[in-house]
Amino acid sequence: MTAAARSLTDSIALPSYADVEAAAQRIAGVAHRTPALTSRTANERTGANLVFKAENLQRMGAFKFRGGYNAIAALTPEQRRAGVLTYSSGNHAQAIAYASKLLGAPATIIMPLDAPAAKVAATKGYGAEVVTYDRYTQDRLELGDRLAAERGLTLIPPYDHPQVIAGQGTATKELIEEAGELDVLLVCLGGGGLLAGALLAAKALNPGCKVYGVEPEAGNDGQQSLRKGEIVKIDVPKTIADGAQTAFLGNYTFPIIRDLVEDIVTVPDAALVAAMRFFAERMKLVVEPTGCLAAAAAFTGAVPVEGKRVGVILSGGNVDLASFARFVGEGS
Ligand SMILES: *Cc1c(COP(=O)(O)O)cnc(C)c1O
Asked: What angle do CA 74, 80, 81 make, to 5 degrees?
């Protein structure tokens, strides 16, 4: 049975904040407690009080290490020995490759043929086996299910998994613990693992905080899904935010987002480039295009932030140096 068909027949148990707390224990001392950074210039530009959670400084360069490590650590020793499998456009692949190496589990990774070279190389560098597919014509869910069945591997998908969501929620837990109460939290949105986890943590620790998802303009399936009240599937969007090129939300992530999110907004790719330049120039941070989505929502006014205390998750910093140079060079 395919993953999609399975989800229609099973009733699923959604993760809760207790799962985020359990994840925080599993990753303690392994994942970095990344810094919460501020910028006077960013505050002056927006009239807000912004706190940036720098997951670009997380191990392997993105928050995905949290969910990947948590999901593998939560397996039985037998499952870990047999190995794990995943499909990913990049950062989740690296997270699973790296976490499985730390936890002694063999990893098989299904990656798109056109994934960024740096991400493919890093994944192989952690010792994982990489299997490629064409993301414009082939169904990675089907391929993943088939390989998992053939090889006896446990599939850990990039976002639609309770332990992945719980792990991603630890970033928001740390941010609120460190920064205190927030009026608004801005979170980028691909398949919704990071946003769903953020919602579980924020609603438990800071119920008054309004949490917004931010998508690339070219791929607003999350926004459409929220408006329609059901998961809307779109074609793989063409955007520089490669970490948010997902075509649909998941069966775990969607209900959490639908019930708890304030709204989902979009920003154009040009705003991501402007934000990348800002982080490089003013805060000395390398943030990948997808990692700039949340900040761009504050900078463009897609979410009104003036006079508010605002958490912004910088989700990752994995970008080819050649692309980075091209992006930050634009318009200068
Ligand atoms: C995966 C990823 C996202 C999107 O996360 P989802 O959990 O799929 O919504 C955003 N930014 C970066 C850097 C990522 O790697």
From this structure: 160
290 ligand 1 Cβ < 6 A:
yes
Answer yes or no: is pLDDT of 9 > 60: no
The phi, psi pair for 319, rounded to 5°, reads -140, 135
Phi-psi region for residue 301, left (φ > 0), alpha (ψ -120 to 50) or beta? left
* Distance separating alpha carbons of residues 66 and 172, to the nearest angstrom: 11
Question: If you compute the radius of gyration of the chain from its CA atoms, what whole number of angstroms results?
Answer: 18
Any ligand 1 atom below 6 A from CB of 67: no
| Nearest protein CA to atom 5 of ligand 1, as residue | 190
Residues involved in catalysis: 64, 89
Instruction: Report, as an integer, the average pLDDT of 133-148.
Output: 86
Nearest to 198 by CA among 292, 312, 40, 113: 312
Please work out whether the CB of residue 189 comes within 6 Å of at least one atom of ligand 1: yes
Least confident of 13-17, 55-59, 147-151, 210-214: 147-151
- Both structure tokens of 124: 């192989």
Question: For residue 68, how far is the Cα from the chain centroid?
Answer: 11
Q: How far apart are CA 23 and CA 35, in angstroms?
A: 19
Q: What is the mean pLDDT of residues 222-250?
A: 93
Token pair of 39 as six digits: 């910028």
* pLDDT of residue 79 exceeding 90: yes
Q: Which helix (H) or strand (E) holds 166?
A: helix 162-179
Can you tell me which residue has the tokens 């869910």? 141
Residue 244 CA to ligand 1 center (angstroms) comes to 6
The string of pLDDT tens digits covering residues 96-128 is: 999 999 999 999 999 888 887 777 888 899 989
d(CA 84, CA 82): 7
Write out the two tokens for 238. Answer: 């063409």
Q: Which residues 6+ apart lie within 8 Å of 39 measured at CB?
A: 50, 52, 282, 283
